[in-house]
Specification:
The complex is a heterodimer of chains A (313) and B (328). Chain A is an alpha/beta fold and 313 residues long. Chain A is 34% helix and 22% strand. Chain B has 328 residues and is α/β, with parallel strands linked by helices. Chain B has ten helices and twelve strands. An eight-stranded mixed sheet of chain B has the order 6-7-8-3-9-10-12-11, with helices on both faces. Chain B has a four-stranded antiparallel sheet with strand order 2-1-4-5. The chains are: A alpha/beta (313), B alpha/beta (328). The interface between A and B is large, with 42 and 42 residues. Chain A: This is ABC transporter ATP-binding protein.
Chain lengths: 313, 328
């Protein structure tokens, strides 16, 4: 469903060329959920924008259901927009504050020539029901909704065009703990009932582990490790994935008190001046000489469906 | 011995429809060298509690009852000028967004020194203590950092500067309002480790406000869980996670995916929403959503009772909980 090959997105700025995404490859099969994990500046949100053609790649190819995202124009671009939709962390970003929810959803239907008038009203009701909201929510404005309700509307808006793929960019990060569970459960049930393919972008390893079939970890514009959800989250191989695994606090004091107390030092370097060799080497606890000079390729591991970019694994 | 003692604190916010009770009788104490995690969802009153301690409630909000004692002195009985001296002097705060506390037009060294001078530390001594404070929070080359403007620093460095500034006056109490929420996890890890070091080094009493139960599990000695302006449960961290005594704490813990699940079923949901503070029910505020409710729960609001290691505002002891819902 998604095929990304050596995709790059570089930006020219006064500080030089920022390599936000710098040669990323992955595939997502139909019905599969891929989790994209990483910290700020790793390129995960830029990757999301590339997939939905909000940004165009400066190199490489991105195919979504066979559509070449880099070159899609006109009818092809409209087909792309009906195939893949983006759900934002902050649903305010996709909702007009001065419009009632029903009008916002009806507008999406009209723009894509899917339904008007009574048919649109009926469809808006269906969409709200699909995301577990009462029809009365249609008459409200975004600010009158709770955070969880707003995110459900954000999902309904994305589903209005009957897409086959959702790119979910931190969809539960801004929500209260108890509301997160509700939205996660909704995503699981929609995936099953509509046969959706997800790209789930998050910094929350726990949620990624809960939802995804496979996980890819990004650092400074590159994928450093990718594999099955239990491989990557429970038995990480790349030193960066291991550091992330240790850094994420887990709601279990027994696990927390058993930690080594080792913390990853330093911060993510400037993507306009990535370090030579392995991009993680300045922070890596086990870096050697070759890590400082030679960039490690993303290589298949003997334990099956896993890729790791590290000289020392 | 408790450094901070909050006794039956009440706070209200003025609205068009009258005064909204946002904090409804909170009692909490923190010892020197102890970190207490104050957990709650939006609207639970956790931030109002913190701002009450600092005397920084927004316009329209006020403390309407109770006492806030620091080393036995009631902050609420002080005059405004004395209160200002205590703020920063004995009680300091760090925020979610460090830019809240930083002036973008001043170098960070000048800002820390200004805070010291406002509390009577003079020129050369203020400069010396500024550099020492910057060094103590683990920032390399303190002189260079001191000459930097906030926008030249990363988010993690800014939060370290705010911590340096907060601790330069050697406060006894540190209020931390989600100071790591906006940071990347590896930077969050560094800041959590730093605060823990400083707690030990200075015997600080820390009130750590967060919605992240993972952060609480890592850093807090005790936890207080807030719901609808009250503390639903307060307990030592290990006890609360191992055997929560309030159904709300249990439900919150159950809603988080376990890092060891091999089969991934639906996450247990609480259902419903927190009560409208303008129309609180007469009984337990959690009763309408509670899986363990009994007929009496809707009639009167429970006061905290000691059960196990915990103080819990619940009528129904764990032994009576229905097993299916005893998650957490």
């Amino acid at each position: 469903m998604i095929e990304v090959t050596e995709a790059a997105r570089h930006y020219r700025t006064s500080d030089g060329v920022v390599r936000a995404v710098d040669g990323v490859s992955f595939v997502v099969a139909e019905g599969e959920t891929l989790g994209l994990v990483g910290e700020s500046g790793c390129g995960k949100s830029t990757t999301a924008k590339l997939l939905v053609a909000l940004e165009r790649p400066t190199a490489g190819t991105i195919l979504v259901d066979g559509i070449d995202v880099a070159t899609a124009r006109g009818a092809e671009l409209r087909r792309l927009r009906r195939t893949i939709q983006l759900v934002f962390q902050d649903p305010y970003a996709s909702l007009n504050p001065r419009r009632r929810i029903a009008a916002t959803l009806a507008e999406v239907l009209a723009v894509h020539d899917l339904a008007r008038g009574a048919a649109a009203t009926r469809r808006v009701g269906e969409l709200l029901e699909m995301v577990g909201l009462p029809a009365s929510v249609g008459e409200r404005y975004p600010h009158q909704l709770s955070g969880g309700q707003r995110q459900r509307v954000g999902i309904a808006r994305a589903l209005a065009v009957e897409p086959r793929v959702l790119v979910l960019d931190e969809p539960v990060s801004a929500l209260d703990v108890s509301v997160r569970a509700e939205v996660m459960n909704l995503l699981v049930s929609l995936r099953a009932s509509l046969g959706l393919t997800y790209l789930f972008i998050s910094h929350d390893l726990g949620m990624v582990r809960h939802l995804c079939d496979r996980i890819a970890v990004m650092y400074l514009g590159k994928v450093v490790e990718a594999g099955g959800w239990r491989q990557v989250s429970d038995d990480p191989l790349h030193p960066y994935t291991r550091s992330l695994h240790d850094a994420v606090p887990v709601a279990d004091p027994t696990v927390e008190s058993g930690r080594s107390g080792r913390t990853l030092t330093g911060e993510v370097p400037d993507p306009a001046a990535p370090p030579p060799g392995c991009r993680f080497h300045p922070r890596c606890p086990i870096a050697e000489d070759r890590c400082r000079t030679t960039e490690p390729p993303l290589l298949a591991q003997p334990d099956g469906d896993r890729l790791v970019a590290c000289h020392l694994v | 011995m408790s450094v901070l003692e909050i006794v039956d604190l009440h706070a209200v916010v003025a609205t068009d429809g009258g005064e909204l009770p946002v904090v409804r009788g909170i009692s909490l104490s923190i010892d020197a060298g102890e970190i207490v995690g104050l957990v709650g969802e939006s609207g639970s009153g956790k931030s109002f509690t913190a701002l009450s301690v600092l005397g920084l409630l927004p316009d329209g909000a006020r403390v309407s009852g109770g006492r806030i004692l620091v080393d036995g002195e009631d902050l609420l009985s002080l005059r405004a000028a004395e209160r200002r001296t205590r703020r920063g002097g004995t009680v300091a705060m760090i925020y979610q967004d460090p830019m809240t506390a930083l002036n973008p037009l001043m170098t960070v060294g000048a800002q820390i020194a200004e805070g010291l001078r406002a509390h009577g530390v003079d020129g050369a001594e203020a400069k010396k203590r500024t550099l020492a404070a910057i060094e103590e929070v683990g920032l390399p080359r303190p002189e260079r950092i001191a000459r930097s403007y906030p926008h030249r620093l990363s988010g993690g460095q800014r939060q370290r500067v705010v911590i340096a500034s907060a601790l330069a006056l050697r406060p006894k109490v540190l209020i931390a309002d989600e100071p790591t929420t906006a940071l990347d996890v590896t930077i969050q890890q560094q800041i959590l480790a730093l605060v823990d070091e400083l707690r030990v080094a200075h015997d600080l009493a820390v009130l750590w406000i967060t919605h992240d139960l993972g952060v609480v599990a890592r850093i807090a000695n005790r936890v207080a869980v807030m719901y609808a302006g009250r503390i639903a449960e307060a307990a030592p961290t290990r006890s609360l996670f191992a055997a929560p005594q309030h159904p709300y704490s249990a439900a919150l813990l159950a809603s988080i995916p376990s890092p060891t699940d091999t089969v991934r079923g639906p996450l247990p949901q609480i259902g419903g929403a927190p009560p409208d503070l303008t129309a609180l029910p007469p009984g337990c505020p959690f009763e309408p959503r509670c899986a363990q409710r009994e007929p009496g729960c809707a009639a009167t609001e429970p006061d905290p009772v000691h059960r196990g290691d915990a103080d819990t505002a619940c009528f129904v002891p764990r032994e009576r909980w229905t097993t299916a819902e005893e998650a957490g």
